[in-house]
Amino acid sequence: MTEQQRAGASGDVSLAGLSKHYGDFTAVRPMDLTIPAGSFFALLGASGCGKTTTLRMIAGLEQPSTGTVHIGDRDVTALPPYKRPVNTVFQNYALFPHLSVADNVGFGLRRRGVKDTAGQVKDMLDLVELGHLAKRKPTRLSGGQQQRVAVARALINTPQVLLLDEPLGALDLKLRRQMQLELKRIQTDVGITFVHVTHDQEEAMTMADTIAVMNGGRIEQLGSPVELYESPRTTFVANFLGQSNLVEARVTGRADGDLLLDAQGNRLVLPAARSAADGERLVMGIRPEKITIVHTSDAKVADGRNRLDGGVIVDAAFIGVSTQYVVRMPWGQEFTVFEQNMERDRRLVPGAGVLLHWNPEHGFGLESGDLTAGVAEASEDAA
Amino acid sequence: MSALGTLGTGTTGGVDTTDKASDEPARRGRWVPYALLAPGLLWLVVFFAVPMVVQGSTSLQTGNLTKGYDLTWHWAGYWDAIEQYHPQFLRSFGYAAAATVMCLVIGYPLAYAIAFKAGKWRGMWLVLVIAPFFTSFLVRTLAWKTILADNGIVVDVLNTLRFTDVTAFLGLTQDDRVLATPLAVICGLTYNFLPFMVLPLYACLERIDPRLHEAAGDLYASPRTTFVKVTFPLSLPGVVSGTLLTFIPASGDYVNAQWLGSPDTGMAGNVIQTQFLRVLDYPTAAALSFILMLLIVLMVTAYIRKAGTEDLV
Known about the structure:
Chain A is an alpha+beta fold. Chain A has helices spanning about 1-5, 50-60, 100-110, 120-125, 145-155, 175-190, 200-205, 225-230, 235-240, 375-380, and strands at about 15-20, 25-35, 40-45, 65-70, 75, 85-90, 160-165, 195-200, 210-215, 220-225, 245-255, 260-265, 265-270, 280-285, 290-295, 305-320, 320-330, 335-340, 355-360, 365.
């Protein structure tokens, strides 16, 4: 207890050169990462990207191949899980089936020699609104209730860091949304560092202050949800986190801090500050909802906006709040455009000729690479 | 496509016949459980219920082989049997209990290792556990005569280690020999019934989610505490079934006592066997069988009650 309080002065989690390989397979490439104390941090990625392995190395359930884990000022790399000031909410909760809800929640306290756990257990169960179920066995609870028991069982120990391994994966969509808000509220209340592993980009964006997008055992990009969404720095992030329209372009000149681009014969503008690429060739990206779509016969576009002519609608899907268009561009690529349903233009049906335009500030530039990186991973997780 | 087609026809057929045969499936279905039960019931009636009644009647008869036996409701036969043979009953349950404890002590770590540590070798280990069953019970037991022979290496080692002094002090061995002592009978029982302990234990341990071990570790439980507080409680159903499967047949066994023991180590099974096959005193043998059965049922019921209400999930 005292040991934890001392280290609690700084509850940062720092990973230095941390990696893990199993034989020839590299699960996590050497990684340096600092998770600030008190933050809600998400490790986001598709299955097999190394996010869970990273979490398990912080928990001590997996021994790193190289590197160190510090919690606060303390090097915990060599400590077994039961000596680390962290607690985990497991993917399928891993509640003890032979113990009542109250005994599950009090398990950690008793292991640390706390004599009278009843009061604390009751308070914690009230916090997660399960006080009336204290005597039940966990198998007789619903998924959402089990999930809250798992959170209570971890939180009651007031760890310096709470690790959550896909904690909402087993819940249905509605319950998941509700639990997301609940977890966020609890985190704000208790102020403990949360490290949350998930494959659900929406979940990560709703809850986390900072997201690390992982791919192939490496962190692709680290930042706030807004940063990641508005300014992705790799094609993987652009495609995995939300959707993007990506087109290869060549830099033809510079003016006033803007890059002048040639993309498939179209002249586009991109603020230099919004490009992550240095070279002559880059990939220009624009999010579907940032694009305005108009019928060819209304070809009047304000000055200073990027425009692409000659598109043809191949698909229009009405999804309530918006309409989702798929537009085939003259060079064969398909663009996705989301249009709010305010004034629907009834001419915008499949087969109609359209032009697309957007504010250059909304574009982003990426290093050339695989334009479809992350697309498959994102749709796999949606399924 | 073909699956859809089949489904389509099936549905149409069902709709067509609904009117004339709406209750037919239910009526036909009612007989199914009885039909499935019939072979088992028949077997039980012929080979269990009828023999029980015959045996019960035999146990209350008087007479002798030459004049024949008559049913005289001679309950005193039971009291005579208990009075005369209670040492054998005590030995039966004592040896069976000792063998069960030995089986648990040997079998639990074995089952634990197979379930959690054996990895891809699990299957092979399980085959090795049941491999002794490929030889006959009798041959296996006789083999122990050689293993425990007076000048054999096992007894020599035990003597050198002064282990036989300890067992002699406990009344389990005599004169630096193991064969023809209670210890030999207990060893034989342990050996012969070990798989009955290991298999249910393994089945139970193997079902325990390894993430529960991780969760316990995550909640400050050392590996030892994890075993005491999580693994062992969760394996109790296996412990209960394993001990029952060992204790029940062991307490009725007579082969081990006959081949590895001496006249002083006779168990209830030996008495019953002698009465039935040598003395040909059928009423006494039948009464002994009933007493043995009744005592086992009582003990097992008490055990399950205790285990079931206090310790099990």
